[in-house]
Task: inverse folding
């Protein structure tokens, strides 16, 4: 009886946040459902309302399942009587509120089978995400008692790790060795980031105005491209900036680990690993982009433009990166921001402009020459800056030694 | 033997760390100014200094993470900037804010680092984790600063180094953990002969375990002595207002002086090899007073050099 009282007291006197969240969630869901109900009355309506409702439903399912799972866990820890009955009620509640009710509402609003399917998939995604998140949190806060069972068995010092592997481990993700499962998830995330938005645009092509379709598609492709550059190129490079940030003392661990060889060896390994991963990512993206050009039967000139665009990415990013490593002039977070911004302005507009496909004329010819001149001048400045920064880096007796003052 | 004698006067094989005439500037500002000292085998040297005194810079130079403008540092008979793997296995360093490898769990990080050290003590590692109540499955990035510092100390102590360089190791520790840590350091130095250099601005820590002490103030090494000699070689001379009139020039062995509110003067004096104190100090109206480490630190760092003279 005391346990029940304690549980009820905690529920009533506890923080009102869950209640407020629940209220907000129901209101937002109802509003989205209302918009959906109105939208589907319009002939030749777009799928936008259904997508918004599904998106919101994923979030709501996530929140519901996450909090209910937490509550059930607490109930289990309190060792309340009739735990099994409570569990059954909880699971039925989750199933009812997350799956049955939303699908029934959409169905009753005369939504199509496709929309009901979308909502159901949203429920699955949200619930799965919440359960995975819970499991992850539980695994991380594993009891320290593990020390007494596993830990006290003294482990013999193993073989010295291979220097290449050690550098990868020390640099952390995404450089660190990982399981195939993790790599698969990363690749799937990358594919989703690159192709997600354009695929959605292609699926709902019929809902869009014919004149707006190319613009929306190109915008989706651009954002997909930015996300991919962020994941494949900027993220690994930003790790490098964090490692080399002298304020954080992160270098000391790597610099003072024995068995990694001399300064020059470490430098070579470090830069090969640190640039190899983003380089490979960039090549992967280039291959994907070339494939896309081929599939869309775009003109041959687009292959050249694409290659040029991908060549410009490292030519702009690396000088900034090397400069920041040689003499950090701003915090790591700002450097990452600068790197990312540099990618949104990779001469894309100039490369993809119709200027190059237009018929020849004297004015156009001069304009092209001027643009090429400006781009080359900018590149010369960038390369000069990179060489200067590289020379400073090479003066270091050890890759981690800070000589700037 | 004085663990911190002037380098060059004693054979270098007696020392695990020698730094000679180190100078360092940051953006034109002098951070270290001609710093020289050495640490004998088995000695525990406490480097005391106020915030911004240059302790961290000095330690980063000593482990080869920072290049001095001039001067040199020799660690375990090798230049700090070009330490071999053999020397690195004998050296343990804990930075002020250990932040690297923080994407790993405690267990993974310790096992990864441990695989580099031939004398890695796994038993010590696990016992310390249990004693300090640190979950091995916890990600380093999620630990509090104090817990992270504990993990860094476990990492460095489990590698059984011959020389420990610790940059404010106890600053984020709670009193219990600090006591444990200081006991461990004293034990290592006493039983295993581990030499220790640790920086701090907590005087009581230093008094507990240090065999030698250095004061670093505004980049200069103001004091370098054995703890046992401290009370015999340093005194505070309190002079009355009348007697202070005759002391316009610095006395032999004078380190610092300042005027008291009553018009009298406090002068900190030092001597070498128990030579007699200056005659002026024994004049009437003058009294000697032995000083503890904290008093001495405040007197010296608050009034370094003969900075003030009566008109």
Result:
């Amino acid at each position: 009886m005391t346990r029940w009282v304690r549980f009820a007291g905690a529920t009533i006197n506890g923080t009102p946040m869950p209640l407020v969240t629940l209220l907000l969630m129901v209101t937002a869901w109802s509003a989205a459902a209302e918009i959906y109900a109105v939208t589907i009355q319009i002939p030749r309506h777009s799928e936008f309302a259904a997508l918004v409702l599904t998106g919101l439903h994923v979030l709501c399912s996530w929140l519901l399942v996450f909090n209910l799972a937490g509550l059930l866990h607490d109930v289990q820890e309190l060792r309340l009587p009739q735990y099994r009955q409570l569990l059954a009620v909880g699971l039925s509640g989750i199933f009812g509120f997350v799956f049955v009710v939303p699908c029934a509402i959409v169905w009753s609003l005369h939504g199509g089978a496709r929309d009901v399917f979308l909502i159901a998939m949203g429920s699955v995604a949200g619930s799965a995400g919440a359960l995975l998140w819970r499991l992850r949190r539980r695994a991380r806060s594993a009891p320290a008692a593990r020390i007494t069972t596993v830990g006290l068995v003294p482990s013999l010092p193993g073989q010295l790790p291979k220097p290449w592997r050690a550098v990868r481990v020390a640099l952390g993700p995404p450089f660190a060795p990982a399981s195939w499962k993790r790599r698969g998830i990363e690749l799937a995330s990358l594919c989703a980031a690159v192709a997600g938005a354009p695929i959605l645009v292609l699926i709902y092509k019929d809902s869009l105005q014919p004149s707006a379709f190319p613009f929306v598609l190109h915008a989706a492709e651009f954002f997909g491209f930015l996300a991919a550059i962020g994941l494949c190129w900027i993220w690994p490079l930003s790790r490098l900036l964090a490692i080399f940030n002298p304020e954080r003392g992160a270098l000391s661990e790597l610099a003072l680990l024995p068995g990694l060889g001399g300064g020059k060896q470490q430098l070579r390994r470090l830069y090969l690993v640190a640039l190899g991963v983003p380089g490979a990512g960039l090549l992967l993206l280039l291959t994907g982009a070339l494939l896309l050009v081929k599939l869309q039967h775009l003109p041959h000139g687009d292959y050249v433009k694409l290659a040029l665009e991908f060549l410009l990415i490292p030519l702009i990013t690396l000088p900034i990166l090397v400069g920041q490593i040689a003499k950090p002039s701003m915090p790591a977070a700002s450097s990452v921001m600068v790197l990312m911004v540099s990618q949104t302005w990779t001469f894309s507009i100039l490369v993809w402009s119709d200027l190059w496909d237009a018929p020849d004329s004297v004015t156009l010819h001069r304009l092209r020459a001027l643009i090429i001149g400006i781009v080359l001048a900018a590149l010369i400045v960038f390369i000069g800056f990179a060489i200067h920064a590289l020379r400073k880096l090479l003066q270091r007796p050890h890759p981690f030694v800070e000589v700037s003052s | 033997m004085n663990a911190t004698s002037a380098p060059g006067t004693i054979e270098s094989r007696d020392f695990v760390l020698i730094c000679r005439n180190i100078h360092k500037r940051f953006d034109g500002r002098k951070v270290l100014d001609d710093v020289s000292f050495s640490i004998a085998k088995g000695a525990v040297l406490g480097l005391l200094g106020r915030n911004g005194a240059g302790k961290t810079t000095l330690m980063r130079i000593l482990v080869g993470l920072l290049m001095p403008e001039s001067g040199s540092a020799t660690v375990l008979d090798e230049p700090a900037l070009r330490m071999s793997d053999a020397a690195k296995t004998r050296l343990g360093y804990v930075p002020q804010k250990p932040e690297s490898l923080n994407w790993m769990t405690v267990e993974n990080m310790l096992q990864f680092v441990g695989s580099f050290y031939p004398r890695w003590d796994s038993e010590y590692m696990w016992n310390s984790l249990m004693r300090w109540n640190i979950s091995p499955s916890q990600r380093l990035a999620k630990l509090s600063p104090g817990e992270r510092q504990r993990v860094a100390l476990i990492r460095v102590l489990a590698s059984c180094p011959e020389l420990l360089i610790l940059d404010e190791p106890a600053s984020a520790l709670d009193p219990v953990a600090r006591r444990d840590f200081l006991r461990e350091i004293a034990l290592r130095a006493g039983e295993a002969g581990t030499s220790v250099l640790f920086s701090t601005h907590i005087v009581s820590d230093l008094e507990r375990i240090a065999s030698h002490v250095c004061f670093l103030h505004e980049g200069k090494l103001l004091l370098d002595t054995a703890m046992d000699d401290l009370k015999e070689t340093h005194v505070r001379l309190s002079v009355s207002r009348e007697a202070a009139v005759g002391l316009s020039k610095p006395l032999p062995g004078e380190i610092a002086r300042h005027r008291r509110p009553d018009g009298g003067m406090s002068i900190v004096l030092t001597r070498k090899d128990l030579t007699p104190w200056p005659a002026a100090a024994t004049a009437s109206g003058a009294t000697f007073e032995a000083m503890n480490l904290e008093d001495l630190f405040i007197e010296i760092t608050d009034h370094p050099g003969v900075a003030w003279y009566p008109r």
Observations:
- The mean pLDDT of chain A is 76.
